[in-house]
Design goal:
12 helices, 10 strands, single chain, six-stranded parallel β-sheet, TIM Barrel
Length: about 270
């Protein structure tokens, strides 16, 4: 397997514990468009070395990345060597400096890197981290714990906006939103996804297959917006008036993005 198989612009990547290799292929066929094999939070400290061995001995899905343990932990270097051997994309948790990304890049070469922003230092450095990563993601649960705020949307508005802005400034794909802890409340998952899409995120991290469909429905534009976008693009070029609205290049760009988002969600939902 080569890293080229991993789709860095995935919409609904699903976590699976690294010490449950029997679940790797199930996750890959669950409907998620990527799999994140987790050596970090999903594996207890006493089990991490064994989990890495299981990962190296297992059949790894082509659309997989590995979440390694954070820089500075005793498992970090071994995780990196495993990722390089498997030639898989890497998710770096608790990314806090551009130096961490540069060290990682020196170790794994051109394998894709997703930098997970989960702390105040990470957010402060997000714009420089973004220039060394292939995509950003927001670990808002850890971030909230780090700075002592609630997980309510208003409390995290600034952080989310900064991560979206950092991604855009670095010309990266729109970032991945963090997980919704509840997987039985599909309405909440869909609402969280819809809010993330409105903020400018391009996907959402998932912890259970039940979250896949509601996440994709949340990211899919409303049918009224899709109809509007199609009508806008039918107006042709130049500045014109349509239903009392001025239509010019920025409006057409928004319409194009709405239709692209709908196609991306439908392509996964229809598989």
């Amino acid at each position: 397997m080569t890293a080229a198989h991993f789709r860095i612009e995935c919409l609904a990547p699903l976590f699976v514990p690294a010490n449950r290799p029997e679940r790797y292929q199930k996750a890959a066929t669950s409907g998620a468009d990527a799999v994140i094999i987790d050596l970090e939070d999903a594996v207890a400290p006493a089990d991490k070395e064994a989990a890495r061995t299981m990962l190296l001995d297992a059949s790894v899905p082509a659309n997989a990345m590995v979440r390694i343990n954070a820089a500075g932990t005793r498992w970090h270097d071994g995780d990196l060597r495993a990722a390089k051997k498997l030639s898989v994309a890497v998710m770096l948790p608790k990314a806090e400096s551009v130096g961490q990304l540069q060290d990682l890049r020196a170790m794994i070469g051109d394998l894709p890197i997703v930098a997970l922003i989960e702390s105040a230092p990470g957010l402060a450095a997000a714009r420089t981290i973004a220039h060394e990563a292939d995509r950003l993601a927001f670990g808002y649960i850890d971030f909230s714990a780090d700075i002592g705020c609630s997980m309510e949307r208003d409390a995290l508005l600034l952080a989310r906006a900064e991560i979206v802005l950092a991604s855009r400034l670095a010309h990266l794909p729109a970032p991945l939103e963090g997980v919704t802890p509840s997987f039985d409340d599909t309405a909440l998952v869909e609402d969280d996804a819809r809010y993330a899409a409105a903020m400018g995120f391009g996907g959402k991290l998932l912890i259970h297959p039940k979250q896949i469909a509601p996440t994709l429905h949340g990211f899919r534009p409303a049918q009224a917006d899709i109809d509007w976008a199609r009508n806008i693009l039918d107006t042709g070029d130049g500045a014109v008036s349509f239903n009392g609205q001025m239509v010019d290049a920025p409006v057409r760009l928004r319409a194009q993005r709405i239709l692209a988002a709908a196609r991306a969600c439908d392509a996964i939902l229809d598989r």
